[in-house]
């Protein structure tokens, strides 16, 4: 069973339907107890970093999400759900994130992007930087669907699982222990996105070493 965190800032039904397409049961929950006790947890998200953290805290979900990640069971973050894992976000101010991954979330600088527009929206290719089991069937230059104006800057480059280029290289996915998260939307990325979600669903729910 996949549990998808509901904090009113994500395309939750699209993520749920994507898991259902690969034959996996997924429930949407905003209950702190269900989230902390989940077998596998997905944190999606669309919107502003500060608003999302405020909503997560208002619903008393920050602690259960952090506790779940600390349990060592499989976790998948999507788009804003990747960014919220970091220490700080700089969208319309400075805001504290969940602090699971050291680093910041910063904006693409339009002045340095040439003819490229911000937000980064549409299909782009990735390059693998690690050897994640989730990426075993995902070759370099696979296309995934992105919609974002901000990107993560991990303090430790070893957590970068995928890299993408938009004006300059940026981190398109991270992996650290039981935590995997993407800047792109696998649920909008057709067959390859479904392949990635299926690989996550196939992971054992037994805790892994952090």
TrEMBL record:
PANTHER family reported in the protein's UniProt record: IMIDAZOLE GLYCEROL PHOSPHATE SYNTHASE SUBUNIT HISH
Endpoints of the signal sequence: none
Domain of life: Bacteria
Molecular function GO labels: glutaminase activity; imidazoleglycerol-phosphate synthase activity; lyase activity
PROSITE patterns linked: GATASE_TYPE_1 (PS51273)
EC number: 4.3.2.10, 3.5.1.2
Subunit structure and binding partners: Heterodimer of HisH and HisF.
CDD domains from the UniProt entry: GATase1_IGP_Synthase
Catalytic activity line of the entry: L-glutamine + H2O = L-glutamate + NH4(+); 5-[(5-phospho-1-deoxy-D-ribulos-1-ylimino)methylamino]-1-(5-phospho-beta-D-ribosyl)imidazole-4-carboxamide + L-glutamine = D-erythro-1-(imidazol-4-yl)glycerol 3-phosphate + 5-amino-1-(5-phospho-beta-D-ribosyl)imidazole-4-carboxamide + L-glutamate + H(+)
Job description of the protein: IGPS catalyzes the conversion of PRFAR and glutamine to IGP, AICAR and glutamate. The HisH subunit catalyzes the hydrolysis of glutamine to glutamate and ammonia as part of the synthesis of IGP and AICAR. The resulting ammonia molecule is channeled to the active site of HisF.
Domain Glutamine amidotransferase stretches: 4-191
GO biological process, one term: L-histidine biosynthetic process
GO cellular component term of the entry, any: cytoplasm
Record pathway: Amino-acid biosynthesis; L-histidine biosynthesis; L-histidine from 5-phospho-alpha-D-ribose 1-diphosphate: step 5/9
Gene it is expressed from: hisH1
Active-site positions on this chain: 79, 185, 187
Keywords in alphabetical order: Amino-acid biosynthesis, Cytoplasm, Glutamine amidotransferase, Glycosyltransferase, Histidine biosynthesis, Hydrolase, Lyase, Transferase
Locations listed in the record: Cytoplasm
Species this chain originates from: Rubripirellula obstinata
Main location, first listed in the record: cytoplasm
Alphabetized SUPFAM superfamilies for the sequence: Class I glutamine amidotransferase-like
Protein name (database record): Imidazole glycerol phosphate synthase subunit HisH
